[in-house]
Fold this sequence. Notes:
Helices cover 39% and strands 17% of the residues. It is α/β, with parallel strands linked by helices. The longest helix is centred in the middle third of the chain and has 22 residues, at 78-99. The mean pLDDT is 92. It binds nicotinamide-adenine-dinucleotide. Nicotinamide-adenine-dinucleotide binds at residues 6-7, 9-13, 31-33, 45-47, 65-67, 69, 84, 107, 109, 164, 166-168.
Amino acid sequence: MRVLVTGAGGTLGTALAPVLAEAGHEPVLQDVRPLETPYEFIQGDVRSPEDVLRAAGGAEVIVHTAAIHGIHLRNHSPRDFYDLNLTGTLNVWEAAVAVGARAVVFSSTMGVYKSHNAPGAGAALREDVPLQPGDIYGWTKVAGEELCQLYGRTHGIPSVALRFGMFVPEPFFRYGIRLLYGGVDTHDVVRSVMTSMDALTSGNITWDTFNVESVMPFQENDA
Ligand SMILES: NC(=O)c1ccc[n+]([C@@H]2O[C@H](COP(=O)([O-])OP(=O)(O)OC[C@H]3O[C@@H](n4cnc5c(N)ncnc54)[C@H](O)[C@@H]3O)[C@@H](O)[C@H]2O)c1
């Protein structure tokens, strides 16, 4: 399948493209900045409907990763988050409808929950825990998930929202600590995208959300 990956120069997109190719898919990469890649690359901005539509031509699946996220909260305004994360997702959905895409995989976050990685806070390992984002980033992802459901209802395009734990690249020692607080390895993030694509295109899912994080091994009384 021809698979458009938005924000493809990022951590997820960089790891995902070769796995897509190995699985026999045709990755089409889009990013706002130039990328050195052996795969088809279409430079563009997800805030521009025309750019997204151009990149989506012929795509059967769109994996939407372009966003600013938690680490950007300190140097980006709420409007920046709204413009990129929400307008970008709207543009992806409009393009998905226009090109007749079969499925969309949306990158969400564990930040849609109030508190997901504090010891004793009641780890949100169940997807039916009420959503209560604590910042504009988490809110844009809740709104993005709502858009997925709306377009599924109104246009019949199935989608999955993957609520990722932290996978920002880190030095080895910090990486280990991170796995104790819900963080995940990028390989597992990629695997969750591939599995979602298969489930969506084989008709097994019309809409769902999945937490993608490590199980926190501690309870409050362990402290
Ligand atoms: N990395 C994490 O720990 C983490 C955790 C939870 C959720 N997520 C979500 O997963 C997704 C992927 O995260 P990541 O770590 O790979 O992101 P990243 O920051 O590594 O990469 C994002 C990419 O998007 C591109 N981009 C920025 N603005 C753009 C625009 N206007 N148009 C097109 N592309 C643009 C950037 O150039 C960059 O290559 C994001 O949606 C993020 O919110 C990430």
